[in-house]
């Protein structure tokens, strides 16, 4: 589904991704762990095309997409719920969703896709005429998820979906994520999290990043039980 | 009565600012070109000048699209300043090109709207102004529909608010940026066509309007589409009231003073946005 071969990325002269190689299969749920500033966000941005890969190759569904612009990758089914949610503050909830729906290549009817999103996030339906900027943090996260969901992605990437949310809201965010996965066995999920426990509970595999490199990889169980690893890289 | 058309000529400036984050210093020249399109249209076809609106909108849309996608976009990675200089260069180029092509003489659109005046109750209305007003309202409605009810319009708004997030929604922001600039240019041209029968037309006429446009746009809040129409109406009131008491030149001075005052006292425009 997704394959990275020694991908490098830079901010100016600062190397932020250092020869990243990873492979994610269709239907998998993978998490990327690591403390702040290690390059997790940059990795997701590079996969979706907001950042160029200076060297290396990115393959998606067997195609080399390294040179594709972001909008093309999105239309082909790669979706990112960005760090900080990034909803359009001066657009209503419904218009936020319509912006995302307008670009789906599937051609499903808009109304249907809106209803699908509203059935998973009833709160959004109640607020659909409100400006997105006036929603609470948790509701904005739901909207950000809804925008991605309405694109009917094959590869869904989430960047710290629990950042800055109260524990009870985090719980409902992950409930929503599980709901999204129900009946979508084909959906591939890549989640970046600082909250190691929550992340490993919701994924089957994980990668650990340190200074732009992948320093460890394994199944959730392996990572969970590796106390040295946790001490050294994850600080728990 | 001219408030509406002041809104139309300024709303393109605010639209371009919203998406490209640059003031377009060639906006007055876009309006000037719209006036000339109307002039030549009427000279050749002898039709009512209102029919030239479609022509000038189309010409300036194409010119605007070409200018943004072929020139501005090439320097956009270096930030705003080189783009701003390019719009200044375009402004100088266009007014000089107009002078070379059509000379510096004042031109008057040969047939004008019927210059009758009609009465509604106690108010007497000058027919051309009524036509301009009606068209401006229509254009404002059309623009509202375009921005809020079409995918392109929503993509323009999304790109203005967060270009990266817009890309994540699958928006081709290069295209949206070019379309926004083109649309802004077309709106200026339409305003030029509407005003052409009322004003003498000459190559530097754009510089006469650009101050008005900038004042209206900062009054309404940079990037605020509704604000541009409210600002346009306010400015037209200021100008017509001051023309009763003082000369028109002093009215312009007054506009300029307002411009400075707003920048100093309320740089966000008079109408704050509604997100807390
Ligand atoms: N816009 C930027 N400009 C320059 N450096 C950046 C920028 N964004 C992130 N960085 C740097 O890149 C590194 C990786 O950042 P990031 O990918 O955001 O890490 P993470 O998501 O793991 O916290 C950090 O050292 C950060 O300081
Ligand atoms: Mg991050």
If you had to describe this structure to a student in words, what would you say it looks like?
The complex is a heterodimer of chains A (236) and B (276). With 236 residues, chain A is of the alpha/beta class. Chain A has a single domain, classed as Rossmann fold, CATH 3.40.50.300. Chain A contains 10 helices and 10 strands. Chain A has a 6-stranded mixed beta sheet, with helices on both faces. Chain A has a 4-stranded antiparallel beta sheet with strand order 2-1-4-5, covered by helices on one side. In chain A, helix 6 packs parallel to helix 7. The mean pLDDT of chain A is 90. With 276 residues, chain B is mainly α. Chain B has a domain of 192 residues. In chain B, 73% of the residues lie in helices and 3% in strands. Chain B is built from 11 helices and 2 strands, in the order ααααββααααααα. In chain B, strands 1-2 form a two-stranded antiparallel ribbon. In chain B, helix 1 packs across helix 10 and helix 2 crosses helix 9. The longest helix of chain B is centred in the N-terminal third of the chain and has 24 residues. Chain B is globular. The model of chain B has no long low-confidence stretch (mean pLDDT 87). At the A-B interface, helix 2 and helix 3 of A face helix 6 and helix 7 of B. The complex binds adenosine-5'-diphosphate and magnesium ion. Magnesium ion binds next to helix 1 of chain A.
Secondary-structure-based class of chain A equals: alpha/beta
Biggest β-sheet strands, sense, barrel of chain A: 6 strands, mixed
Order of helices and strands of chain B: HHHHEEHHHHHHH
Q: N-to-C terminal Cα separation of chain A, in Å?
A: 32 Å
Query: What is the terminal-to-terminal distance of chain B?
Result: 35 Å
Number of extended strands of chain B = 2
Strand order of the largest sheet of chain A: 6-7-8-3-9-10
Radius of gyration of chain B: 18 Å
Beta-sheet strand percentage of chain B? under 5%
Radius of gyration over C-alpha positions of chain A, nearest whole angstrom = 17 Å
